[in-house]
Here is the input.
Amino acid sequence: MGVAVVTDSTASLPGGLAAEHGLTVVPLTVVLGEEVLEEGPDGATPARLVEALGTRLPVSTSRPAPEALVARWERLVADGAEAIVAVHLSGEVSGTVESARLAARRVGVPVEVVDSRQVGPATGLAALAAADAASRGASVAEVAEAARACAARGTTLCYVDTLEHLRRGGRINTAAALLGGALAVKPLLTVTDGVVEPLERVRTASRALGRLEELTVDAALALGGPDTAVRVVVGHLAAPDRAVALLDRLTSRLAAELGDAFAGGWESEVTAALGAHTGPGMIAVGIAPA
Here is the structure.
């Protein structure tokens, strides 16, 4: 197996894509009322999350325990892994990286833990970059560097209907959330050095989504070129029509502007642990080197 690559469920990779690239996905835990569930088809799903939010059931999330990570990694070692690279969402918004670092001391093979300093689809793209490097026979250090380089050059952009869910989870400051609510605006967010921050405020949802498209195109054109192919991923929570329409427009524009330097992308629903902090209707875009 060589180097095994692991990420967490907030990367929101389609299951078939993760399996195709040999990625192991570790679930986060989502608490819906009194139910404590791991993410997955038999546990915390986006549909169950949306239902809970709709009934105002208390919702929270928690990182994987180090013991759970050790158990999964030891299975990889038993299957032949000689080293492990773990690519996770920003340590500024989750303790998952900390759990991984604690777990790394208890496994009998080299483990490199990569704090992507990203959230959502951009973390998934960094994990894919690591998996691609591993499939080419790269060393554990080279695989980890592939993830770090992809994440460092990547961009996360996000539209949410309200900042309230981010405020409740402590992922954005109360003043910013209250200002957005008072002005009745639709927020656009970004991730700066691992921290979720307001980027712009737009008066209506349609204008906000249009602005999200323009910002995505600008970021992709700034990144792409003769030596750099670009991939764009659109995530959503309970908003498939919005996501598909946005991806179609982005694909048309970027294929025309970048030609072969546009490596395409996909849309998928984000997982419950990520959606718990954004609420239904969110659209998250990840832009990164392919």
About this structure: The mean pLDDT is 92. Residues 221 and 268 are 23 Å apart (CA to CA). The chain has two domains: 2-28+63-151, 155-289. The longest strand covers residues 81-88.
